[in-house]
Design a protein that fits this description.
The protein is α/β, with parallel strands linked by helices. It is 21% helix and 32% strand. It folds into two domains: 151 residues, Carbamoyl-phosphate synthase small subunit, N-terminal domain (Glucose Oxidase, domain 1); 197 residues, 3-Layer(aba) Sandwich (Rossmann fold), CATH 3.40.50.880. The chain contains nine helices and 19 strands. Strand 1 and strand 2 form a beta hairpin. The longest helix is centred in the middle third of the chain and has 13 residues.
């Protein structure tokens, strides 16, 4: 069970120290500190594999008020969460709600974090913390519980994808159309979007030779870390594209596809992690509000001539998607499956299936 609150410290790489109370698992941790501005959706965020190795700051001031939904079995986890376990290294909030109320809640956030062995700190001025991150950029941090200590840890120096990918292929759903999903840290919601469209989904590990599988289409999923370290996935993606198999890349998958065609990626100052990122379709001029979670981006100036920008971020003009001149390959930096966030761009799954069947 969750212990009584103890003193905790959040120490940033620049020497800043924030004091608060522990309300999760009583162990110290370290990682890259990032912030998310979403007002709801913390169960999905805490289990999003893209956050692996990161200490997550939730900027909304009150967290925990609706508890956590069921987590006992695979069906529950597929319905309410994005992975079968917690993915963040630590959680930082302003005001943690000790009492929760929701008809679907089965436990408190604090108890869930304790069960998942994830430390958390409350009582932090997340506005001041977020401002510091925005001014100085994403940095390393450590969350110290009680008298413990940890060294700083940079998750971006290693390939994180093998730590969140499945270990062997797994089949989902039924249908005459088969999509192979390359699992780089795939969210459950991506799988659910495909299954809901009567697609047979073969989910394979990140370094699996998907180009050798019988597939009508291939989806390269989202995931954590630096895409340039996913060398095996990039090489397999080159083979997939050379074979002409209809391909859809999402988030990290977008970056991997870009690397596979010879483009370059770079680390952003503080990334995009929110549910209200505006993007514009470069082909139609229509704008959409999207859910995003990434710290790297594609250098649009380095893409080959037979590829075009598909979407761009309205705030900072960064790349939000690419599309090949043939129309058979496309990618998005944002999450069309949302969860959490707006569902404005779910139609892209229909477009992908349309490409497969055309």
């Amino acid at each position: 069970m969750v212990d009584a609150q103890t003193t905790a410290r959040l120490i940033l790489e620049d020497g800043s120290v924030f004091y608060g109370d522990s309300f999760g698992h009583p162990q110290s941790t370290a990682g890259e500190i990032v912030f998310n501005t979403g007002m709801t959706g913390y169960p999905e965020s805490l289990t999003d594999p893209s956050y692996y190795g990161q200490i997550l700051v939730l900027t909304f001031p009150l967290i925990g008020n609706y508890g956590m939904p069921p987590f006992e079995n695979e069906r529950d986890r597929f319905r309410w969460y994005e992975a079968p376990k917690g993915m963040i290294s630590g959680l930082v909030v302003d005001d943690y709600s000790l009492d929760y109320s929701h008809w679907q809640a089965k436990t408190s956030l604090a108890q869930w974090l304790y069960n998942q062995k994830i430390p958390a700190i409350s009582g932090i001025d997340t506005r001041a913390l977020t401002k510091r991150i925005r001014e100085k950029g994403v940095m390393l941090a450590k969350l110290i519980i009680g008298d413990g200590d940890r060294d700083f840890y940079d998750p971006n120096k290693e390939n994180l994808v093998p730590k969140v990918s499945i270990k062997k292929p797994k089949l989902y759903g039924k249908g005459k159309t088969r999509v192979v999903v390359v699992d780089c840290g795939c969210k459950h919601s991506i799988l659910n979007e495909l299954i809901a469209r009567d697609i047979e989904v073969l989910r394979v590990p990140w370094n699996y030779p998907a180009e050798d599988e019988k597939a009508d289409g291939i989806l390269i999923s989202s995931g954590p870390g630096d895409p340039a370290l996913c060398n095996e996935t990039v090489e397999h993606t080159k083979n997939i594209l050379n074979k002409g198999i209809p391909t859809f890349g999402i988030c990290l998958g977008h970056q991997i596809m870009a690397l596979a065609i010879g483009a370059k990626t770079y680390k952003m100052k503080y990334g995009h992690r929110s549910q209200n990122q505006p993007v514009v379709n470069r082909q139609t001029g229509r704008a959409y509000i999207t859910s995003q979670n990434h710290g790297f981006a594609v250098d649009e100036s380095t893409i080959p001539a037979d590829w075009q920008p598909f979407f761009s971020n309205i705030n900072d003009q960064t790349s939000e998607g690419l599309i090949h001149s043939s129309g058979r390959f496309m990618s998005t930096q944002f999450h069309p499956e949302a969860s959490p966030g707006p569902t404005d761009t779910r139609f892209l799954f229909d477009r992908f299936i349309g490409i497969i069947k055309s």
